[in-house]
Automatic annotation (TrEMBL):
GO terms classed as biological process: base-excision repair; mismatch repair
Full protein name: Adenine DNA glycosylase
UniProt organism field: Botrimarina colliarenosi
Cofactor annotation remark: Binds 1 [4Fe-4S] cluster.
Key words of the record: 4Fe-4S, DNA damage, DNA repair, Glycosidase, Hydrolase, Iron, Iron-sulfur, Metal-binding
Keyword Manganese: no
Chemical reaction(s) catalysed: Hydrolyzes free adenine bases from 7,8-dihydro-8-oxoguanine:adenine mismatched double-stranded DNA, leaving an apurinic site
Enzyme Commission numbers on file: 3.2.2.31
Entry function: Adenine glycosylase active on G-A mispairs. MutY also corrects error-prone DNA synthesis past GO lesions which are due to the oxidatively damaged form of guanine: 7,8-dihydro-8-oxoguanine (8-oxo-dGTP).
CDD domains: ENDO3c (cd00056), NUDIX_DNA_Glycosylase_C-MutY (cd03431)
Record-stated family: Belongs to the Nth/MutY family.
Domain HhH-GPD: 53-204
Cofactor: [4Fe-4S] cluster
Phylogenetic lineage: Bacteria, Pseudomonadati, Planctomycetota, Planctomycetia, Pirellulales
């Protein structure tokens, strides 16, 4: 493929091409749009919650979380008035917990500064915690049907192929070009349906691997399809490099209680509860005993006698592949400090725990 200059690629699209694209896309969406719970209402609050939940998360994963969350907190005011621990408990397992804390903080700001009504313009929405350009555009266009472009994983991929953009889509230049294209394609009417249709086409047809070009309503308008370059264009997402890590979680028992601590600001899973947990260097239970004892005391103020290995859990968090060794331990002395506390195992169900913390709690 001959590489085109940035200026050439950025030439405005023909008016008849844009009309054809919009008409075909909306007709396709009318027949193929999925019945998703957040599409059953134009309530800006529900649109906002769904968009935050869908960040880096699959639709099928989000469905039950969205239903439970909006049942518990049906309005911005209800979310603002909620205890953060209850918010995190309902978010538990969805990951990227900063999203939940930002959502909660933003709800409080909406109540305090906007009388509990979600702002209907991009500029004001951008002043709220956790809301970026895409989320603001989604709320304004989908909930209020106002003209606002959107650009997320599905539309980045769709637009890159549509104009056969052969630069790096994730670069600054690539983002400028694709945001410009998103704005250029916006129709004068039905912006809500149009933007949802773009994302739906990317999710169901213009997929990352083996796109269903034969089923695409805009196949004849796609430059990459015409050139045969669909599979040769640069990836539209950056590939993560994973690092291996070893960590330990320690279940310290004192009578009928176990020791837990709340993860501090700046830690992974900030705001959630977990058993004492930390990175370890020692190999094997015998060699790890001294390290476990010292690190539990450092985190919680409690001295303990480490015992048997309960289980090993392998899991991934952001860019880490973690091997988590889970140990038993008996209380020896000391006093809890900071956010640590003793709790009965049955009461763990009331606390928001990390995913691995919940797995370990179930074993107790």
């Amino acid at each position: 493929m001959t590489r085109r200059s940035e200026a050439a690629i950025a030439e405005p699209l023909a008016a008849d091409w844009k009309r054809a694209f919009r008409r075909r896309l909306l007709a396709w969406y009318g027949k193929h749009a999925r019945d998703l719970p957040w599409r059953r209402s134009r309530d800006p609050y529900r649109v906002w919650v769904s968009e935050v939940m869908l960040q880096q998360t699959q639709v099928d994963t989000v469905r039950p979380y969205f239903e439970r969350f909006t049942t518990a907190f049906p309005t911005v005011a209800a979310l603002a008035a909620a205890d953060e621990q209850d918010v995190l408990r309902l978010w538990e397992g969805l990951g990227y917990y900063r999203r939940a804390r930002s959502l909660h903080a933003a709800a409080k700001q909406v109540v305090a500064e906007h009388d509990g009504k979600m702002p209907g313009d991009v500029a004001t929405l951008l002043t709220l915690p956790g809301i970026g350009r895409y989320t603001a555009g989604a709320i304004v266009s989908i909930a209020y049907d106002k003209s606002a472009p959107i650009l997320e994983a599905n539309t980045i991929r769709l637009f890159t192929r549509l104009v056969a953009y052969d630069g790096e889509p994730t670069s600054s230049a690539g983002q400028r070009r694709l945001w410009g294209l998103a704005e250029e394609l916006l129709p004068a009417k039905e912006v809500a349906r149009f933007n949802q249709a773009l994302m739906e086409l990317g999710a169901l047809v213009c997929t990352p691997v083996e796109p269903k070009c034969d089923a695409c309503p805009v196949e004849k308008l796609c430059r990459a399809r015409a050139e045969g370059s669909v599979n040769r264009l640069a990836p539209t997402t950056k590939k993560l490099k994973f690092s291996d890590a070893r960590e330990a979680a320690v279940v310290v028992r004192k009578g009928a209680t176990v020791l837990v601590r709340q993860c501090a600001e700046g830690e992974r899973w900030a705001g959630l509860w977990d058993f004492p947990r930390f990175a370890i260097d020692s190999e094997g239970p015998l060699f790890a005993k001294k390290e476990l004892t010292e690190k539990v005391a450092d985190q919680t103020g409690i001295t303990c006698e480490p015992g048997a290995l309960i289980t090993t859990i392998k899991h991934g968090v952001t860019r880490f592949r973690i091997t988590l060794e889970c140990y038993e331990a008996a209380h020896n002395g000391g006093r809890v400090r900071g956010s640590a506390k003793w709790i009965k195992p049955a009461e763990l169900s009331d606390l928001p725990l990390s995913v691995t913390g919940r797995k370990l709690a179930k074993l107790l």
